[in-house]
Protein: VOC family protein
Organism: Cohaesibacter celericrescens
Amino acid sequence: MLRGVDHIVLAVSDLDAARTLYEALGFIVTPTAYHPFGTKNALVQLDGAFLELLAVHDESLMPEPREGSFSFARFNQSFLHDRQGASMLVLKSDNVARDLVIFNELELETYPPFDFEREAEQPDGSKKTVSFSNGFLHHPLMKHTGFFVCHHRHDPEHFWKPDYQYHANGAQRLESVLFLADNPSDHHEFLGGFSGQRIMRSTSAGVVVDTGHGLLEVLTPSAAKVFYDLDVPTNMPLEGGIAALNISVDLQKTEELLAAAQIDYFRHNDLLVVQPETLFGCGLLMRAK
């Protein structure tokens, strides 16, 4: 069973500034929501996946560290002590307990499941309760990046809203997630077990895993420079991590928006590229939809 990409957590120090920049890029960003454990977010919804702009809201609400448990809030707070950027890859689940059993059978390191609820503001200003079950994993070769599966337990119409998906730049789909690592093949076992995809493309430049809903691409920094002219995010640890997201857009509309907002970008082959340092530590590779 394949687990497609659900969302990417983009940890930022200033949520309002991140919202402003992503809106200038032509994305609709949802109203700010607050987690009961001390973080807040705003989302960019795409076709069945989303970007989660995340910041610390109230440290006093964060759970105290406990041995054997995983704190989403503490993990992202720690990430932000070092840098901003894509802190976590989240895959889809329809049964977190089952998936954790599978991960344990594959000898992947897991943590107890974690459920929570929060309010989600609808386009008309009303509020609905949305609920999630999450199962976290630890990847020892990329310990500064978080990995978990997420089951949306609410009515889909309370979360996924067409009004939040009509982006001015024509953005439609999260095509791929780009990791950087010195030895991409070191990560194929973990990513294969995590995604459920055991068939993957492997070359001297990297590894590509097709989750059925978004690709996971692991490249060496030099290959990413050749393929995309992408810079390594500042302060990315030596083990690597998520460096950029590939999103399908209307290229003409997007280029007009980038120019109007005076956002640094360049064309590379058939892509519009915004470097990680322009976008809070996670670059964008935008291709024609």
